[in-house]
């Protein structure tokens, strides 16, 4: 299978997920693949849907809004995760569109999401994004504030708070970051641990990822 189609690339990623799960003594079903479709057109997402993929990630609310409502009409069982830093003024639109928001990272956003959920009577599941590298330019809660912030989110959102997410610094070994995130999920009894991208998802699976977010390795380079 050397043909380089989107469907064959998806198959290859699924195979690698199964292998990495087995190597870690985990069931392949314990790792979900989030296909990150940001910057790629709806036509590419349709190809992935036709190849059986149902779970997608988008960074920007506006872009998700342009692509996903129409796709949902045809594939009602698709699931959308918002994975990018979220402005408070986009909280309501994000609540309307997303099944999961993976990037909850500050009290002002918690307030905005609460208000939006009350108004819409709809609350997506939520993950707290942790800035495991404490990088100033990156979204996410600082390491030392993570515990208190997770507690705040639990108090506010209850069962809707389901997990944690991180993006390790590009120039570092991701393994210690993944280990830290998995430990945090465990300590706070959160089921979902979203970590690992095209370059490092196998390492993330070895450390306990329950979702891996893969863009380039499925859709190719972003236009
Ligand atoms: C773009 C993006 C990804 C996917 O990255 P690839 O290297 O293309 O697999 C994963 N997570 C987040 C938060 C992203 O913004």
From TrEMBL:
> Is Isomerase included in the keywords of this UniProt record?
no
Q: Which domain of life is it from?
A: Bacteria
- Keywords for the protein's UniProt record, in alphabetical order: Pyridoxal phosphate
User: Which positions bear N6-(pyridoxal phosphate)lysine?
Assistant: 38
Gene3D superfamilies, alphabetically?
Answer: Alanine racemase
Alanine racemase N-terminal domain location is 10-223
Q: Show the InterPro entries listed in the entry.
A: Ala_racemase_N, PLP-binding_barrel, PyrdxlP_homeostasis
Family per record: Belongs to the pyridoxal phosphate-binding protein YggS/PROSC family.
Q: Which HAMAP family match?
A: PLP_homeostasis
Give the function comment from the record: Pyridoxal 5'-phosphate (PLP)-binding protein, which is involved in PLP homeostasis.
| Protein name according to UniProt | Pyridoxal phosphate homeostasis protein
